Amino acid sequence: MVSETVPASWLVYCRPGFEHDALAELQHHAALNKVSCVASHGEGWVSLNRADGEPINDLHRQAAFNKLIFARQSLAALPALTLSRDDRLTPILEQVKASHWSFEEIWHETPDTNDGKALAGLIKALTKPLESMLKKRGALRRKAGARQLHIFWTAGDRVQLGISFPGNRSELINGIRRLRSPSRAPSRSTLKLEEAWHEFIPKQEWDQRLSPHMTAADLGAAPGGWTWQLVQKGMYVYAIDNGPMNTELMASGQVEHLKEDGFTWEPPQRLDWLVCDIVDKPMRVLAMVERWLVRRWCKEAVFNLKLPMKKRWEEVGKCLSHLESSLHQAGVKSQMRCRHLYHDREEVTVHVRLGN
């Protein structure tokens, strides 16, 4: 008889190279909730394992996915399994049975690495047989609270099973939003703003919050990757940059290019949007955005903060705390989120929406 297995691990996926930052973030939340944990990590993932072996569910729920910055996915996970190459499925089936889990979907996932991608053929071969067996055992079924089983393959003979819950997870495989780069956009950086909108604005609100005839400012606009996104939504854009803008973009008639310093320029009236992807020290960018928000020069803002090579989690935390404090002291109500997006590299993207 198989004994019950407890999900004592909090497993998250992250961008390779940012494991220490993701782990520091998880440890911060564990400390806030006074949960003693032991850390582990690999390329593109990290986990915290409860020292007392108790379920991780409370901590996983308290540190909600939409609060996390460096995590692409957030799971309550069982102990990792080492599989026999002769029979990979039986240990998975036995652990699912021991966990007493039920779920509506199975997602096979891997780290965002070349080694992870190389497992695609093996995963494809195992997917249907495993689904069939789990259906027969009643674990994979309809009406299971929209829970999903995540089978995270770190090697051909090593997996970790995790469970996710609606409203506290990414709804994307591997937590990655893959967007097609528009051929007419002036630069690939355009995808950063498009992904930010998908991440921070519910799709049903796009017609209201990203509508034609709105006004926007793009600070550090050249050559126009982010301005292009605003123009596609029908907005009129003040493009602030001393550098040259894309000729085709300027021909739209929706862009006013002002060769001025984005850190000092002031808008002629209140705008709907501020966007900014200036490469500079994060606190300098933050001070500029803070001025816009405190003075209510815009209704919503999306901006990137370029990160140092070390202690990136600490730097982000310091920046966000400073901005929250400044807005509170100024009596400005706001909603703020921050995420290390898939199309970001050495930066994080922040979204702020001001209240009425």
TrEMBL record:
Compartment annotation: Cytoplasm
Domain Ribosomal RNA large subunit methyltransferase M THUMP-like span(s) in chain numbering: 87-165
Enzyme class, spelled out: transferase
Main location class: cytoplasm
Enzyme Commission (EC) number: 2.1.1.186
Catalytic machinery residues: K306
Similarity section: Belongs to the class I-like SAM-binding methyltransferase superfamily. RNA methyltransferase RlmE family. RlmM subfamily.
Subunit-level organization: Monomer.
GO-annotated molecular function: methyltransferase activity
Keyword Methyltransferase on entry: yes
Classification of source organism: Bacteria, Pseudomonadati, Pseudomonadota, Gammaproteobacteria, Oceanospirillales
Catalysis performed (reactions): cytidine(2498) in 23S rRNA + S-adenosyl-L-methionine = 2'-O-methylcytidine(2498) in 23S rRNA + S-adenosyl-L-homocysteine + H(+)
Domain RlmM ferredoxin-like: 10-75
Residues that hold S-adenosyl-L-methionine according to the record: S189, A222, P223, G224, G225, D241, D261, D277
Domain Ribosomal RNA methyltransferase FtsJ: 187-279
Pfam families: FtsJ, RlmM_FDX, RLMM_N
Organism (species): Vreelandella vilamensis
Protein name, UniProt field: Ribosomal RNA large subunit methyltransferase M
